[in-house]
Write a structure and sequence with these properties.
The protein is an alpha+beta fold. The protein has helices at residues 111-119, 128-141, 147-162, 173-176, 185-197, 204-210, 215-226, 230-248, 253-259, 265-276, 280-289; strands at residues 6-7, 18-25, 33-34, 38-44, 50-53, 56-59, 63-68, 75-78, 87-94, 124-125, 168-169. It contains eleven helices and eleven strands.
Length: 294
């Protein structure tokens, strides 16, 4: 029997811009899903809930705010160890064609929002300071009857969130099927090469030669532009592809291990559990349990 992610049909009509649901509930019951439009999801009093976004699995605290802008990125808030009887959830669904060459979001006034929407293809979790900055505006959003004013308020919220330097990308690029369009030319060239050859042996000298730099200079350059050293980045790409195969195929863990460029099964299992918090087998079992037949 085939299991796959629920593709949610949102309530937005042809001429609608935004849908806001503000609700209080006692448990999380909606299955893992994806949808074409963007989603800003706020949870209050949900401590202990397990949030799954792509290959990211985290237990949330009393406040959680995540923006998702990829139509292929699976996500769900699961009950986990949450015991609250008054979970407050606000879900804002909307769509902006921000990548069109004629989009105003590629002009200077909107540039910070544009870069945030790009990052949110991975799922973007906001720090507590940013959540508190927009808390009142989020709770007020569902009460605004005038459409124009509601949209204006949403843009204000997005602008405030776009200034949050500590916002974290959740899912790995390989799992979320996200490219790195906004990187510098040399970093993009190396990232594309790694994504195409992650199953092969990749050496520092080989990649530095690819962009005409010495190995030491390239190591510093790559870390400066990505926040990760080269080996960490390669491992993350390989693990992202491995996680995607665990979800989308019936290949054995060993087959996935070697097809993703890892030399030994024990090293693969160790790295996967360290980065994802679960063994490959546990990840597959837990992910599949959240899926539904559609």
């Amino acid at each position: 029997m085939e299991t796959r992610v629920l593709h949610e049909i949102t309530p937005l009509g042809e001429h609608d811009f935004m849908y806001v649901a503000d609700r209080h509930k006692k448990e999380f019951t909606y299955p893992i899903h994806q949808h074409e439009i963007f989603e800003l999801n706020f949870v209050e009093n949900g401590a202990g809930c397990r949030r799954v976004v792509g290959d990211s699995r985290e237990t949330i605290g009393d406040f959680d705010l995540v923006l998702i802008t990829s139509p292929e990125l699976e996500h769900v808030w699961e009950q986990g160890n949450c015991t609250s009887n008054d979970i407050h959830e606000i879900t804002v669904q909307f769509y902006i064609d921000f990548e069109s060459p004629t989009s105003p979001f590629q002009t200077n006034p909107f540039m910070s929002i544009y870069h945030m929407l790009i990052r949110a293809k991975h799922g973007l979790a906001f720090p507590m300071r940013a959540i508190m900055n927009v808390y009142q505006r989020l709770t007020r959003l569902a009460t605004i009857d005038e459409g124009f004013l509601a949209v204006q308020e949403l843009f204000g919220i997005l602008y405030e969130l776009s200034k949050a330097d500590e916002a974290r990308e959740l899912s790995s690029s390989a799992f979320a099927k996200v490219s790195a369009e906004s990187d510098s030319r040399r970093v993009l060239k190396v990232k594309n090469h790694i994504n195409e050859h992650y199953m092969d042996e990749l050496r520092l000298q080989q990649l530095s030669d690819l962009v005409g730099m010495t190995a030491s200079a390239f190591s510093r350059f790559f870390k400066l532009h990505t926040g990760k050293n080269l080996n960490e980045y390669i491992v993350d790409v390989r693990l992202g592809h491995a996680a995607r195969q665990l979800v989308d195929t019936t290949n054995s863990v060993a087959e996935i291990c070697y097809s993703c460029g890892f030399n030994t099964l024990s090293n693969f299992n160790r790295l996967f559990k360290k980065r994802k918090g679960l063994s490959p087998t546990e990840f597959r079992e837990k992910y599949c349990k959240t899926k539904v037949i559609v």
